UniProtKB/TrEMBL annotation:
The lineage of its organism: Bacteria, Pseudomonadati, Pseudomonadota, Gammaproteobacteria, Alteromonadales. This is PQQ-dependent sugar dehydrogenase. It comes from Psychrosphaera ytuae. It holds the Pfam family GSDH. Residues 61-419 form the Glucose/Sorbosone dehydrogenase domain.
């Protein structure tokens, strides 16, 4: 913490101002554009040359949590009370909220409307997936529903409004619990068409992350209709023991946040919240135990020890261990050409550290120029340099998505939608 605070003071922003975008539509505002040219370096041996302009294109969202592309120009944004907005990134317009989900979403503590993701065949089926906490204070759970997006367009084909219809619940984490912590919920489609997402340990159910008779502290994998894929790791076990949950893909998680399938490496990445210290990036593989709460590099918020172990046999070590905790919230692997410096790097958003944390991975086999012993989960990948950007915004960054042209869109807890573009 000490070292990072010191380093972030080196961060500065140039004062170059750019033209603000004209406001269009009901609730669109565009505030500033400035150019950020330098980052403080978390533990880097070279400077990452990432220069970008920053525009706050909306600032009246209610605790936005998820943002997802429907196509090149349109994005859905969830708000914690269950409302959903449509952002037109070409015309810079924000729709009025759709309220289909507000009666079904339990907004309290860390709960509420969570993530949104479009079906890979969205252009044909208009389907989106939404996660949220359902229930009430004494009995709640992470739930996943689908809905169809209906777009109304004017004569020029420009979208004028949207609505959601045919809400259908396809997964509810079991069992229900009390209290309103650790729901996880970020969604990702795998290349085989299955849908993967985390369910948190519920905070008061951390020990259940180690057993297969519940969904707490798990990464879940289901088909796009909610059914269980036949090749899930515990399907056969569940046939013999009905207490086993066949939706489980991996276990021993605390509160998974960002999830991203990196097609170039054929790897599923996730970051997750540790307790005080011990935040992690993991490469997620089926049937593996990621250790929580038997192993962790963190301690309890009270300062007491959760476990004496940071490593045990048959439990995965994190790919990246962030101690102190940066509180990651989402992640992507940058694939675009707009910011060449970011290509192939892990771009993580942070709540507590209020920054974008860029992580470089190194292929150790390539570095050694010969085959090396590979870990089943991690393959040849190991973390190299890390850099911190965006600290000057003073915002808890909640979700990030890359547009077709390589821009980055970020939503913040204070209600902003910020666009990073070429400087
Ligand atoms: Ca772990």
């Amino acid at each position: 913490m000490e070292r990072l605070s010191r380093l972030t003071k080196q961060f500065f922003q140039t004062s170059k101002s750019r033209v603000a975008i004209t406001a269009i539509g009901a609730s669109f505002i565009a505030v500033t554009t400035s150019v950020s040219t330098f980052a403080s370096e978390a533990n880097a041996s070279y400077q990452l040359d990432w220069t970008f302009s920053t525009s706050t294109v909306a600032s009246d969202l209610h605790k936005p949590w998820g943002i997802a592309a429907l196509n090149d120009d349109l994005f859905l944004i969830t708000e914690r009370d269950g409302k959903v907005r449509l952002w037109d990134n070409k015309n810079n317009t924000m729709s009025p909220a759709d309220e289909t989900f507000t009666d079904f979403v339990f907004e309290s503590g860390q709960g509420g409307m969570l993530d949104v993701l479009a079906h890979p065949n969205f252009a044909e089926n208009n389907l989106v997936y939404l996660t949220y906490s359902a229930g009430h204070r004494l009995k709640n759970a992470t739930r996943l529903s689908t809905a169809e997006v209906v777009l109304q367009k004017d004569n020029n084909g420009k979208v004028t409004s949207f609505s959601l219809k045919n809400k259908r619940d396809i997964f509810t984490a079991q069992p229900f619990k009390a209290a309103t912590y650790h729901f996880a919920g970020r969604l990702v489609f795998m290349p085989d068409g299955t849908l993967v997402f985390g369910v948190g340990d519920g905070y008061t159910h951390m020990d259940k992350a180690q057993t297969l008779d519940n969904h707490f502290g798990k990464v879940i994998r289901i088909n796009d209709d909610g059914s269980v894929p036949a090749d899930n790791p515990y399907v056969e076990m569940a046939k013999k023991d009905e207490t086993i949950k066949p939706e489980i893909y991996s276990y021993g998680h605390r509160n998974p946040q960002g999830m991203y399938y990196d097609a170039s490496r054929s790897v599923l990445f996730s970051n997750e919240h540790g307790p005080k210290g011990g935040d992690e990036i993991n490469i997620i593989k089926p049937e593996l135990n990621y250790g929580w709460p038997k192993i962790t590099y963190g301690i309890d918020y009270s300062g007491s020890e959760i476990t004496p172990h940071s490593a045990l046999p048959e439990m995965q070590q994190p790919l990246v261990n962030w101690t102190p905790s940066i509180a990651p919230s989402s992640m992507l692997v940058y694939e675009g050409d707009l910011f060449p410096a970011l290509k192939g790097k892990l771009v993580n958003t942070s709540l507590k550290f209020q920054e974008i944390r860029v992580v470089e991975l190194k292929d150790k086999a390539k570095a050694a120029k010969k085959p090396v012993q590979q870990d089943y989960a991690k393959g040849p990948w190991q973390p190299a340099n890390q850099w911190t950007f965006f600290k000057d915004q003073g915002e808890r960054l909640r979700d990030i998505v890359e547009t077709a042209s390589g821009q980055l869109l970020i939503v913040t807890d204070s209600g902003k939608l910020i666009r990073l573009d070429k400087a």
